[in-house]
Amino acid sequence: MILTSLPVLLYLIPLTVLAAALVPAHRRTIPLTLGGMIYAFLSGGWECVTFMLMIMFSAWFTIRLQPRLTPEKRRRGIYWMCCGILVQIVLLILARSVVPFAGRLPLMLCAVQGIICICDRGSGKMHLPALQSYLGYSCTLPRIFAGPVISYEESRRFYAASHKPTLRSIGEGAEICVRGLFQLVLLSLPMETLWQRLRTEITLVSTPDALFTLPVIYFTLYYRLKGAVTLGEGIAHMLGVPYPESFDAPILAFSFKGYFSRMMIPLTNKVRSLLFPEGRKIDTFGYFARVLPLLAGMGLLLCDGVNGMIFGAMFAVMLTAERMALEKWLTKIPKPIRRIVTVVLLLFCIGVLYSGSQAETFNFYMILLGKNSIALSSPVIYMMSNEWLTLLFCTIGLFPLRKGIKKWEEHHSILAKCKVIAVPLLTFCVMLFCMAELFSRYLR
Predict the structure, then answer these.
(1) How many helices (H) and strands (E) does the chain have?
(2) Sign of CA pseudo-dihedral 386, 390, 393, 398
(3) What is the distance between the alpha carbons of residues 50 and 90, in angstroms, rounded to a whole number?
(4) Which residue has the higher pLDDT, 10 or 417?
(5) What are the residue ranges of helices labelled H in 239-334?
(6) pLDDT 10s digits, 59-86
(7) Distance CA 282, CA 268 (A)
(8) What's the rounded mean pLDDT across residues 417-440?
């Protein structure tokens, strides 16, 4: 994971934040954009940087040349919009065979933002941006690996509402960054190592073995994504930029739609507004035809092999089936049962990502469905005993603990007083643990 590499954490992020804090506010995006391009180079080499520039320049040229969707120029405007979006998709497809896995997420974020801008420009919601301003919107360091995926005008409002960095904002932002490091280094990385060991060093024998693997895969991906987003939010907070929260305990959702609504909130809101405009009635087939290419394409781009595409297609089927059943009988089921069913189906679908090989994945599902025995094997028990503390923290972290603590503070003033000392001390200790873990991995 490039984001947890020592050069990025010890040099790139601190130097970029320092440069952005020292320059005037209206020039702040310049060092952040340079930091984003360096991160793209570290993630995928010159190939990633080249495709990123192609994606951004093609979107910018489309925005500059396309007409608005007025009655007189509607046909020509739709033609330009379709061509611009098609170019973004083609560049992503070409990049998949050239750019390494770590560099594909920044490319996807830039392309999604380009598509948002093309659509907003066509509908008259966006003015013509200068090239420097558009580059600053597309690939600033915090957003290139974490988002949030928002429109150009929303990004301008965020930076306009930003304040000069203060000691308080720097301290609060550093605490958020350490929280993101905790999720990346002490939760996601151990789970990723355990996932790889379950794939390569151990032969899964029984159904409980396969069941144990499912939450390990989920914890790896969930905390990798959430940790990156939290780290980006912390960097923005240090610079006085008010980024919106992207996670709202998706594990508490009552449906797949609710799960996506609570996860990567700015991204899901923008995608929903693009695919399903307000006031337009879309039937079930139209819904599936819009969701399937999006989720399957994202899975194909971000995962090696075709299993990622299958994973996205499974989610599209689940969302469509849920939409069909929602008005008929799904709302009659008690919410706790719906929550449990959503979690079970989510973990079942995520098993597709067990391996890049379809044969291994098929065998994994056969074991999961009871092919062999129903008793835990000794190697899996040994791994569970070694990683029980990490698994416990991963499970606890799925729930909105901070919101609960804030509510408790309102009724217990002594807790707020203790927090003044406890939070900085705990943050410092967590940072030391994260650095120790990273250095130990670096020296192995």
Answers:
(1) 21, 0
(2) negative
(3) 14
(4) 10
(5) 256-262, 265-275, 284-302, 307-326
(6) 999 998 888 877 777 788 888 888 999 9
(7) 18
(8) 83
